[in-house]
Amino acid sequence: MNRRAFLALSTACVLPWSGEAHAFVDHSYAPATWRELQNSDQTVVLFFRADWSLTCQIKEEIIARLIAENPRYENLTFLDIDWDTFGASRMTEGLRVSRRSTLVVMKQGREIARLENEPHEDKLRALLETAMAA
Length: 134
Hints:
Layout: H1 3-20, E1 27-28, H2 31-38, E2 43-49, H3 54-69, E3 77-82, H4 83-86, H5 90-95, E4 102-107, E5 110-116, H6 121-133
Parallel strand pairs: 1-3, 2-3
Antiparallel strand pairs: 2-4, 4-5
Protein backbone atom coordinates (compact mmCIF):
# COMPACT_ATOMS: atom_id res chain seq x y z
CA MET A 1 0.00 0.00 0.00
CA ASN A 2 1.40 3.40 -0.87
CA ARG A 3 1.69 6.22 1.65
CA ARG A 4 -1.21 8.32 0.27
CA ALA A 5 -3.62 5.41 0.36
CA PHE A 6 -2.50 4.55 3.89
CA LEU A 7 -2.96 8.15 5.10
CA ALA A 8 -6.39 8.41 3.45
CA LEU A 9 -7.49 5.14 5.05
CA SER A 10 -6.04 6.16 8.44
CA THR A 11 -7.87 9.49 8.35
CA ALA A 12 -11.13 7.80 7.40
CA CYS A 13 -10.75 5.45 10.37
CA VAL A 14 -10.11 8.29 12.82
CA LEU A 15 -12.80 10.72 11.65
CA PRO A 16 -15.77 8.84 13.14
CA TRP A 17 -14.23 9.31 16.59
CA SER A 18 -13.89 13.04 15.96
CA GLY A 19 -17.59 13.58 15.34
CA GLU A 20 -18.56 12.09 18.69
CA ALA A 21 -15.71 13.59 20.69
CA HIS A 22 -16.61 16.15 23.29
CA ALA A 23 -20.30 15.80 22.47
CA PHE A 24 -21.18 15.94 26.17
CA VAL A 25 -18.67 18.53 27.40
CA ASP A 26 -20.24 21.62 28.96
CA HIS A 27 -17.06 23.57 29.69
CA SER A 28 -13.38 23.58 28.87
CA TYR A 29 -11.09 24.01 31.84
CA ALA A 30 -10.07 27.49 32.88
CA PRO A 31 -9.19 28.40 36.47
CA ALA A 32 -12.07 30.88 36.73
CA THR A 33 -14.58 28.35 35.38
CA TRP A 34 -13.36 25.73 37.82
CA ARG A 35 -13.63 28.14 40.79
CA GLU A 36 -17.18 29.01 39.74
CA LEU A 37 -18.18 25.35 39.43
CA GLN A 38 -16.59 24.47 42.78
CA ASN A 39 -18.74 27.07 44.51
CA SER A 40 -21.97 25.93 42.84
CA ASP A 41 -24.36 23.14 43.78
CA GLN A 42 -23.70 21.39 40.46
CA THR A 43 -22.23 17.92 40.30
CA VAL A 44 -19.18 18.24 38.07
CA VAL A 45 -17.45 15.45 36.18
CA LEU A 46 -13.83 16.40 35.49
CA PHE A 47 -12.48 14.59 32.43
CA PHE A 48 -8.69 14.66 32.22
CA ARG A 49 -8.11 13.61 28.61
CA ALA A 50 -5.86 13.87 25.61
CA ASP A 51 -7.04 14.05 22.01
CA TRP A 52 -4.48 11.48 20.95
CA SER A 53 -5.44 8.89 23.60
CA LEU A 54 -7.46 5.95 22.32
CA THR A 55 -8.68 5.22 25.86
CA CYS A 56 -10.00 8.78 26.16
CA GLN A 57 -11.71 8.51 22.77
CA ILE A 58 -13.38 5.26 23.77
CA LYS A 59 -14.58 6.83 27.04
CA GLU A 60 -15.94 9.86 25.18
CA GLU A 61 -17.91 7.62 22.84
CA ILE A 62 -19.32 5.50 25.66
CA ILE A 63 -20.28 8.52 27.80
CA ALA A 64 -21.97 10.22 24.83
CA ARG A 65 -23.94 7.04 24.18
CA LEU A 66 -24.89 6.68 27.86
CA ILE A 67 -26.15 10.27 27.93
CA ALA A 68 -28.18 9.66 24.76
CA GLU A 69 -29.70 6.56 26.37
CA ASN A 70 -30.36 8.20 29.73
CA PRO A 71 -31.21 11.93 29.51
CA ARG A 72 -30.92 12.23 33.34
CA TYR A 73 -27.14 12.35 32.83
CA GLU A 74 -27.58 15.65 30.99
CA ASN A 75 -28.04 17.22 34.45
CA LEU A 76 -24.36 16.61 35.17
CA THR A 77 -21.82 19.27 34.30
CA PHE A 78 -18.78 18.01 32.42
CA LEU A 79 -15.47 19.87 32.51
CA ASP A 80 -12.95 18.97 29.81
CA ILE A 81 -9.34 19.21 31.02
CA ASP A 82 -6.72 18.86 28.29
CA TRP A 83 -3.97 16.67 29.71
CA ASP A 84 -1.35 18.03 27.33
CA THR A 85 -1.98 21.55 28.63
CA PHE A 86 -2.90 20.98 32.29
CA GLY A 87 -1.39 17.59 33.13
CA ALA A 88 1.41 19.21 35.10
CA SER A 89 -0.69 21.86 36.83
CA ARG A 90 -1.49 22.72 40.44
CA MET A 91 -5.01 21.49 39.85
CA THR A 92 -3.94 17.98 38.87
CA GLU A 93 -1.42 17.90 41.70
CA GLY A 94 -4.03 19.07 44.21
CA LEU A 95 -6.51 16.43 43.06
CA ARG A 96 -3.74 13.81 42.82
CA VAL A 97 -4.53 13.01 39.21
CA SER A 98 -1.50 11.20 37.87
CA ARG A 99 -2.64 10.20 34.40
CA ARG A 100 -4.87 11.12 31.51
CA SER A 101 -8.13 9.25 31.02
CA THR A 102 -9.20 10.03 34.58
CA LEU A 103 -12.73 11.04 35.52
CA VAL A 104 -13.29 12.72 38.89
CA VAL A 105 -16.78 13.52 40.17
CA MET A 106 -16.86 16.63 42.37
CA LYS A 107 -19.60 18.40 44.27
CA GLN A 108 -19.00 21.67 46.11
CA GLY A 109 -15.24 21.14 45.90
CA ARG A 110 -15.39 17.63 47.40
CA GLU A 111 -14.49 14.44 45.53
CA ILE A 112 -17.37 11.98 45.25
CA ALA A 113 -15.92 9.33 42.92
CA ARG A 114 -13.02 8.63 40.58
CA LEU A 115 -12.33 6.35 37.66
CA GLU A 116 -8.84 6.03 36.18
CA ASN A 117 -8.37 4.45 32.78
CA GLU A 118 -11.17 1.79 32.76
CA PRO A 119 -12.88 2.35 29.39
CA HIS A 120 -15.68 -0.08 30.28
CA GLU A 121 -19.33 0.80 29.87
CA ASP A 122 -20.49 -0.77 33.14
CA LYS A 123 -17.90 1.14 35.17
CA LEU A 124 -18.67 4.42 33.40
CA ARG A 125 -22.40 3.91 33.95
CA ALA A 126 -21.74 3.23 37.66
CA LEU A 127 -19.68 6.42 37.90
CA LEU A 128 -22.46 8.47 36.29
CA GLU A 129 -25.03 6.89 38.62
CA THR A 130 -22.85 7.80 41.62
CA ALA A 131 -22.61 11.33 40.28
CA MET A 132 -26.39 11.53 39.92
CA ALA A 133 -26.87 10.37 43.50
CA ALA A 134 -24.51 13.03 44.89
